Amino acid sequence: MSLFNLKNKSILITGSSRGIGKSIALHSAMHGAKVIISSRKIDACIETANEINKEVGDEVAYPIPCNISDSNQLEELVSKTIDLLGGIDTLVCNAATNTHMGSMLDMTDDQFDKVMNNNIKSTQKLCNLCIPHMKEKKDGSIIIISSIAAIKGSPILGAYNISKAADVMIVKNIAAEFGQFNIRANSIAPGLIKTDFAKGLWENPDILKTVLGTTPMKRIGEAEEIAGVAVMLASKAGSYINGETIVVDGGTTIA
Question: Which residues of the chain have pLDDT under 50?
Fold first, then answer.
């Protein structure tokens, strides 16, 4: 049996109606998992679930809308997932917000608070909701999509960078406290990936030129290149990886 087999695994993925989250959902389903497609808009969730079910040739993707800024909706997301799939083997925290590009001096308090709430508080809340279930069955994998913004300063993404650095510590804390229950928590730190979320960066000629100038592979990444790492962390292949941050950036941060 393949080390990457996800048959009979149930995976909850936030922000999965498009981009990196959608790719993780698709490739997890292709490796045998049942997946929850979740984002704010139900129509987008249904559309993505239908696409994945058609691609896989079976009903393996299920839509549950959720606004990650709403604690009640997060609780409903977890309870509905457990009711529908019988449990949560892997949680993928992918949904995130970036409210401001530019100097931190020009960022309003409301913009800063929204980034911290959506990218840190909601992620911690969602992990806390899933951990008791994983602890009870003594198995579980938590994956947080961080960013190389967590380890590299930026003159235009200050608050976002702070929030992504927090992701790195969240998984370390979870690993330290709950590793004894066979719960693994890791983050993935993508470089610049060609998604709608990052369009403001890769569509800007000056920013793109700067990124490519410091990236040995001379290209930006694709969503499926992040999905491959997520599949590994959700499967037996990643069963002894815990508390780590895996950088997937084509070499940008080593150049």
Answer: none
